[in-house]
Write a structure and sequence with these properties.
Elements (H helix, E strand, L loop, with lengths): L1 H20 L19 H4 L6 E6 L5 E5 L12 H13 L8 E3 L2 H4 L13 E3 H11 L2 H12 L2 H14 L22 H12 L2 H7 L3 E4 L4 E4 L4 H4 L3 E9 L3 E10 L2 E10 L2 H18 E4 L11 E4 L5 E2 L1 E2 L6 E4 L7 E6 L3 E2 L7 E9 L2 E10 L8 H13 L1
Parallel strand pairs: 11-16
Antiparallel strand pairs: 1-2, 1-9, 3-4, 5-6, 7-8, 8-9, 10-14, 11-12, 13-18, 15-17, 17-18
Helix pairs in contact: 3-6, 3-8, 5-6, 6-7
């Protein structure tokens, strides 16, 4: 047993060495990126990728795109959807993190990157998530798919249904791993959409942001295929992908000073170029944009007269304006327009929409928030009028 343990540790060490020398993280790439890099729009247009997109994760606003709607093989970026469905199954109680999953013959037969699951081997669901998110293991991803839906076919159907519900109009999944297959396609825009959805699950980012870890009591080493997690300040995910058909792909997510971005690069010729593409995209986003929090114009949000109501007017309220993404230095240039109903016919329900505030920059609307009735107002009838008169006489 001691000999077997030593062999296992030697294999783990060999795996780590291979990960650092096989293009995942080459020696020349092992450098921390500066946090104050300034990238212009002209520079970002030269990203070494066939397709690219930068999105504000909070609003979904696209900040830059290049050939973003061309369907192409997504490689292991596919696993973002696999992870999304897994975390949704965890949230609805269908699965639990510590649940033991038995690897099927089919899962163990996956090629490409893997953790060498044996048919019949049991592994905790959270470890399969770890192997999928960090190491992009195809056998682990297939085991997750079968755990969620019972079979690969059923899971792929669920993947496509979820993609449709998210508005991913250029995507069609054929498998949960991302291995090249006819008809298995997505777009940079769609990948950004599903990346943003996965980011709404903080527990998912807890996995995708791990740089190194291990399984099987330390016998199986895991090194994140996304080197930006280690070398780009604020990067917390999300997923790499590489196949002959797809080239080198990456969906990279990062947060700095409250600004959360998704950068997608597809079809780069090399691993280094996909990282450079997303680095350029993220640097452009962080250097060219800032968050602005406009205040509500309280003096313009006035009470509204109510016709035939038990009260003559109703107060108006609104939620705080959301943070808006604007070019750096332009926060003070945001304008607003308040629209309010001239009057309302009773009855008025609390929370009823009675107007709106729109915020714009250079004529482009950034967001619109509703104005709401702060109270309910009943319609005046005989008995309501009688009670009001009675109370006035007694007061």
């Amino acid at each position: 047993m001691k000999i077997l343990g030593c062999v296992g540790m030697m294999l783990a060490a060999l795996f780590c060495l291979t990960a650092f020398t096989s293009g995942v993280v080459s020696a020349e790439e092992m450098t921390d990126y500066p946090v104050d890099a300034v990238v212009t729009e002209a520079e970002v247009m030269a990203v070494p990728a066939r397709s690219a997109l930068l999105m504000d994760a909070q609003s979904g606003r696209v900040l830059f795109e290049q050939n973003a709607d061309e369907p192409m093989p997504p490689a292991s970026i596919t696993k973002i959807m696999t992870l999304l469905l897994t975390f949704e199954a965890l949230e609805d109680g269908t699965l639990t993190p510590g649940q033991m999953i038995t690897a099927s013959e089919h899962a163990a037969s996956m090629g490409g990157t893997q953790i060498w699951l044996e048919p019949g081997e049991e592994m905790a669901l959270e470890d399969l998530i770890k192997a999928t998110a960090i190491n992009s293991a195809n056998d682990a991803a297939m085991a997750l798919a079968e755990a969620v839906s019972g079979s690969e076919m059923a899971f792929v159907e669920a993947m496509n249904q979820r993609a449709a519900s998210l508005g991913m109009t250029g995507t069609h999944f054929v498998n949960p791993t991302g291995l090249d297959a006819e008809g298995h396609l997505s777009t940079a825009r769609d990948i950004a959409i599903m990346s943003r959805e996965l980011m709404s699950h903080p527990e998912a980012l807890a996995y995708t942001s791990i740089w190194m870890d291990s399984l099987r009591g330390g016998e199986t080493a895991l090194v994140n295929t996304n080197k930006l997690v280690r070398y780009y300040s604020g990067c917390n995910g999300l997923k790499t992908g590489t196949t002959d058909g797809a080239g080198s792909c990456l969906s990279a997510t990062a947060v700095r000073d409250g600004l959360s971005l998704v950068a997608v690069s597809m079809g780069s010729p090399t691993s280094a170029e996909r990282f450079e593409s997303c680095r350029l995209l993220l640097d452009y986003g962080f250097s060219a944009f800032e968050e602005a929090a406009p205040s509500l114009p309280a003096e313009e949000i006035t009470d509204i007269p109510v016709l035939r109501g038990t009260a003559r007017q109703v107060p108006v309220t609104a939620e705080a304006a959301p943070s808006l993404l604007v070019p750096k230095g332009r926060s003070g240039d945001i304008t607003h327009e308040v629209t309010l109903a001239e009057d309302l016919e009773a009855p008025v329900e609390q929370g009823q929409i009675v107007g709106s505030i729109s915020f714009s920059l250079d004529g482009e609307e950034l967001c619109e928030i509703p104005l709401l009735a702060a109270e309910s107002v009943s319609r005046m009838d005989f008995w309501a009028a009688f009670r009001m008169l009675w109370y006035q006489l007694l007061s």
